[in-house]
Amino acid sequence: MISERALEAILAFTAAFHVALDLAAGVALAISIVRPAWRAPQLWLGGLWYGFHAINHLFDTGEAKSEARGWSDTILIAAGALGACRLARVAERPEAR
Length: 97
What we know:
It is built from 3 helices and no strands. 77% of the residues lie in helices and 0% in strands. The chain is flat. It is an all-alpha fold.
């Protein structure tokens, strides 16, 4: 059994890691504005990230404030994943560079 204090420390570490990862991804996306070769890989990573996030939401839709909110979050996140993947495909085209 893990103590409450240990769990709080783990959650604090995880939150800090998540913020750092989000910040790094945001900086990389910003750099891809001026470096076209970075666009497709960044968009693919974002699409995968959103896709896994949508799968996670599939399993906890009932834990949202309402059933409708849970499903709408899942659908919108999945749409974001598909949009990022579509943009990645467009960014891979030779004429896009």
